[in-house]
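Example record

One chain of 186 residues, shown exactly as stored in the release files.
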Amino acid sequence: MARRTALTLILAGLSPVALGEIYKTVDANGNVVFTDIAPVDRSGQPAAQPVTVEPVNSYQPPPAPVSQQGDAPPQSDEVGYYEQVDVISPAEDETIRDNSGNVQIQIAISPRLRGDLRLMLIIDGADIGLEAVNGVFELSNVDRGTHTAAGRVLDRQGNTVVESNPVTFNLMRVALGPENATPAPH
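Predicted structure tokens for this chain:
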């Protein structure tokens, strides 16, 4: 802080107001010279002209908010904080064919999920207790049929901050019949 104060004082001392007049002269070779020293009368050269220097642009940033370490960000407008919370994969009414029942669900969230919040997966209206890894959920052995998937952002207390609209998808798995099934009559 002391260095900043010293630098400010030095720069203030160098301002045009502190230095006095600034003069513009042209030497015998036609070179333009700016100086703060009053020009000496040089025979055959044009007289020095005083130059008015405009004030330098400056910017004073607003004070940075002071936060206590460990404080959670304000909770008042969290719902409006996220511009996007959407299931982007699978697409609406997409059919997934996987005999193992593996499904990958991807949720886009913008702006990025804050560190004090969690993104959870809701399947068929129930929180299955699976937390996202980079917005992606890896499911295995999902039953065949039609399902809905949504993302839910939870705070530290487990309260819902925001939830995406559900997306419906279909999972097709091969259904094997009994081993000794009797063939149907023709």
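Notes: Residues 19-53 form one domain.
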